[in-house]
Structures are given as structure tokens and as C-alpha cells.
Specification:
Layout lengths: L1 E6 L2 H5 L5 H8 L4 E6 L12 E3 L7 E3 L1 H14 L4 E11 L2 H7 L4 E6 L7 H6 L3 E4 L9 H12 L32 E2 L2 E2 L9 H19 L11
Bound molecules: adenine (ADE).
Length: 229
């Protein structure tokens, strides 16, 4: 999978996508993330990527020409499955969207900034708008990093234990069961006996019950959702 991220703040994305599982995916050649500085596509001599809003009002607006040029350049090289715009107006990101996007080959993510982007970009160039939550970030970069991380870890072969991504919280709309490691007892707090029993059938049953119980107590609304929606 290849993800092209277009941003006015490349430094904000570089670090979160240079470590851990995402780094491993890149090193293994299973994912490629290319970060494009929108300023490199500016079309005027001042290299400007934003301008005042027509009709007045506070805040700058991302200009259409650099975004158009960046996207068109990329589209000339390959076909893209989705051209995503990160914005609080978008559809709320969830595990199902991550699963769907992880099956694609080429994605572009345009990070929103300033007061927003010229609306013609959203009307004519963007195929999907995604929000990562009902709050407003300073820019779409952290959202792009969150989306990329959630997608990349699902690509087959990225996580060495094949079943690991499938047992994450939210797959099947259930929270993950509790996990423990050594020591067996710490300050008198003991690891549940069943996990040390060696009876894998019973352990699986216990984990499922714990998942259900935790979901009921902590996130009951997940149980009302269709896991395929
Ligand atoms: N940009 C600003 N806030 C955002 C959010 N909640 N999700 C995605 N992009 C954003």
C-alpha cells in the first residue's frame, strides 16, 4: 500500500509514522508513506498556500491551485482508490473504515489546515472526508497519522502474529480482554488464576466473557452497532 500525504506541516506527520509497527511495515516493503509539502506545489512567486476568505471573516483558506497541482501530479503517476480530506466535518473514523481502507493500494490524504480549504477542492477533488472525533484539532496532520497507523497495522504480514490485529479492541465491536505479564504477584495483586491454568479452551472462553463484560460496562453503545457498518 502507498499513502501520499499532502500537508503544510510535514514535520508533524513524519515522527508518528517513523516508529514501531508502521516503521516495520515500511521496512518490510508492505507500506510506503510519502509526505508532500504543499508549499512545493505553490504556483505564485510568494509560494503562498493560503489566502483571505471571499466575503470576509477571520482565518485564512487553503488555496485551490497548489492542492490541484499536487493531486494531479500524483494522479498522473497512478490510480488512487480514495482521495481523503481530514476534517472535523467528515464521517467519523472507526475500525470498519480502517479495515476497508487497508484493502486499498493507493491513497492520498490531504490534511486540512487554517480555516479550511477552498470548497471547490472538496467538491471536485476529494472522494472522502474523514473526522477522527468530535473535537477540533489545529490541523489535519495528526488525524492523517492516526488514520495511516490504523490502516497500516491491518495490512497482512505487518503484524507478525497473524491473529494479533484480529483480536484488537473493536474488531467485532468488542473491547479487548485484559492482559497481564510477569510478575505473577505484585504488591499482592494477582494475575487471574485461569490465565496460568494452561487450559487454552477455558482461557479463550474467559477472554471472550471478559470482552463482553468490559464492553457492556465501558462502551455499551458498541453492542448496538452492526460490526459491518
Ligand atoms: N482537523 C481538525 N480537526 C479534525 C478532526 N477531528 N478529525 C480530522 N481532521 C481534523
Amino acid at each position: 500500500m502507498r499513502i501520499d500525504i499532502i500537508t503544510v506541516q510535514p514535520e508533524l506527520i513524519q515522527s508518528p509514522l517513523s516508529h514501531s509497527i508502521v516503521k516495520r511495515a515500511i521496512d518490510k516493503g508492505l507500506a510506503e508513506i510519502i509526505i508532500h509539502n504543499l508549499r512545493d506545489y505553490a504556483t505564485d512567486k510568494y509560494k503562498s498556500v493560503d489566502d483571505y476568505a471571499f466575503g470576509g471573516g477571520a482565518g485564512m483558506v487553503m488555496k485551490i491551485e497548489p492542492v490541484y497541482k499536487a493531486i494531479e501530479n500524483l494522479k498522473q503517476e497512478r490510480d488512487y482508490d480514495e482521495i481523503i480530506y481530514t476534517s472535523p466535518d467528515g464521517t467519523l473514523f472507526n475500525q470498519n473504515t480502517a479495515n476497508e481502507l487497508s484493502t486499498y493500494q493507493n491513497l492520498i490524504i490531504l490534511c486540512g489546515h487554517y480555516k479550511g480549504v477552498d470548497h471547490r477542492i472538496r467538491e471536485h477533488l476529494i472522494t472522502r472526508e474523514i473526522s477522527i472525533g468530535n473535537y477540533v484539532l489545529s490541523g489535519g496532520e495528526l488525524a492523517a497519522a492516526v488514520i495511516s497507523d490504523a490502516i497500516i497495522r491491518l495490512i497482512p504480514g505487518v503484524i507478525s502474529d497473524e491473529t494479533s490485529a484480529l483480536t484488537d479492541s473493536f474488531q467485532d465491536n468488542l473491547l479487548a480482554p485484559p492482559v497481564y505479564t510477569r510478575p505473577e504477584t505484585f504488591k499482592g495483586w494477582r494475575v487471574p488464576e485461569i490465565l496460568r491454568s494452561g487450559n487454552f479452551e477455558k482461557i479463550e472462553k474467559w477472554r471472550f466473557e471478559q470482552s463482553l463484560e468490559r464492553t457492556k460496562n465501558l462502551r455499551p453503545e458498541l453492542l448496538d452497532e452492526d460490526p459491518d457498518e
